[in-house]
Amino acid sequence: MPSAHPSWEDYEGFLQGTSVWAAQHRNSRVLHHLLVGCTVCRDGLRGMTRQMRRLACLFGSGAEPAPAETAMAGCDYTPAFAAAARAVSAFLAPAAEEPSASLMAEFAALSAEDRFRLVSGGGPYAAPGFIKMLIDQSHNVRYRDAQEMLHFAYLARLAVEACPPEEGDQELRLADLRARAWGQYGNALRVTGRPREAEGALITAQRHRKAGTGDPMLRAWLLTRVAPLAVFQGRFHDAVAMCAEAGEVYRELAENHLLAFTLVQKAIATLYSGDAENAIRILNQAIPLIDHEEDTHLLFAACHNLIRCYIDLGRPDQALLLYSETRELYQELDDPLLLLRADWQEGQLLRDLGHLRAAEEILVRARKGYMERKLAYEVALVSLDLAATYVKLGFVDELKRTVMTTVPIFHALRVGVETLASLLQLQRVADQEQRALELIRTLSALIEPLHRQQVEEN
Predict the structure, then answer these.
(1) Same domain, residue pair 115 and 203
(2) Are the beta carbons of 212 and 433 closer than 8 angstroms?
(3) pLDDT, greater one: 452 or 147
(4) Cβ(404)–Cβ(390) under 8 Å?
(5) Is 376 a domain residue?
């Protein structure tokens, strides 16, 4: 290797996160060499580790490299290199120490009020390792209890705000952690039906991310939290673009499972935009990339939404065939929210295939489950599916009772006057099948934009 190039020992020390203050000259030289696009070193480093791929993303390696003569002509790039070196040094710093089992056990035994007080007070409950544990716990309960998901995300947000500011490189790592805590909090707010607050939290998360190390994995992770909110808001084109951007990061880092995750999200946005055929194509790209052993939930999400596509296309026979083929996958799950969604979908299938009494039984069970968990959007939508079943059965009294118990839920959702009037009109035309079904379709179209939380990997 020519002497103009840094040595492999230089690169190894750089990748191992040696303090920038102890090796500033070397690290600046290495960074400059990478940034100006030396093809010899890039070829040699290509296989040096997965971490190197992640660093290449950090440098924006997809851009066309500028010639060294142009990059250095008449300019002092030392401050830029120093800033980049600081970001990379923080990026490669050792992970935060995990909290002790005893500390976690003590925290688990506390009341909600005591938890809020302790994490807000700093100390061990506001340490980076403990905050990461709170974020992970929020993510882990996402399919079991949406309110608990929000609880842990809120704790993480409080704790990260109480985490004392660090000096030097660690401040960048703390900014990354703040971005992740606020991102999880925003995602939990969305899941629990608070989209305006979710948007504010996710904007805050993006601001912290921009102040951090520039970690490409964090950027992609945050995009996959913002995209579902864009779907919720009806901004389908934006959601698809965010998923594509995150997918490019994961593709470059050879993270095929995470790439599959972004494809499933992209398919959901495409489905809600009204293009079920294209959503099917995207899901069929995603499914072979999913590691079933690593993430049963993501495979469930892909299959569940594939079935939904066939339902929306008016092909219930094909949907039922796929449902039968994936029944074992459904039986592997023990997450209450996913099981409720599976019941809901089975009820829709049975109704569309004409098995009305069986559909009624399952939809009643799903509606009750969502009511117990205070998930108003889901209750409203399942109620409309149940109402359509009663219309087809000719059960006028049952339809009227369902409408009456749904009115307070619509009020709680703060729907418009038009939506509420349509619901009340449904009672008056309960014995007119065609008119009643038209009203139910209208109501579903009015409620769906408020909901748009079909199964996805949160």
Answers:
(1) yes
(2) no
(3) 147
(4) no
(5) no
| Spatial CB neighbours of 33, under 8 Å, sequence gap ≥ 6 | 5, 6, 41
Determine, yes or no, domain membership for 347: no
Q: Please give the distance of CA 258 from its chain centroid, rounded to a whole number.
A: 11
State yes or no: pLDDT of 264 exceeds 50: yes
Distance CA 385, CA 389 (A): 6
Beta carbons of 278 and 245 less than 8 angstroms apart: no
**53 domain residue, yes or no:** yes
Single-letter amino acid, residue 108: A
DSSP string, 21-86: TTSHHHHHHHHHHHHTT-HHHHHHHTTS-HHHHHHHHHTTTTSPPPPHHHHHTT---HHHHHHHHH
Question: Looking at the domain assignment, is residue 414 inside a domain?
Answer: no
Q: How sure is the predictor about 149, in pLDDT bands with cuts at 50, 70 and 90? A: very high
Q: What is the mean predicted confidence (pLDDT) over 430-438? A: 88
Main-chain phi, psi angles of 137, to 5 degrees: -65, -40
Higher pLDDT, 333 or 434: 434
The residue from 70, 91, 112 where one domain ends is 91
Confidence band (pLDDT; 50, 70, 90) for 364?
Answer: very high
Here the tokens at position 408 are: 């307070």
Whole-number percent of the chain with pLDDT over 90: 43
Point out the domain boundary residue: 174, 196, 214.
214
The boundaries of the domain holding residue 25 are 8-91
Task: Please state, in angstroms and rounded to a whole number, the distance separating the CA atoms of residues 175 and 208.
Answer: 5
> 69 pLDDT band (50/70/90 cuts)?
very low
Q: For residue 278, what are its two tokens?
A: 């294209």
pTM: 0.70
The token duo for 43 is: 């070829």
Beta carbons of 89 and 172 less than 8 angstroms apart: no
pLDDT at residue 180, as a whole number: 97
Residue 414 pLDDT greater than 90, yes or no: no
- Structural domain tally of the chain? 2
Residue 189's nearest CA partner among 175, 178, 203 is 203
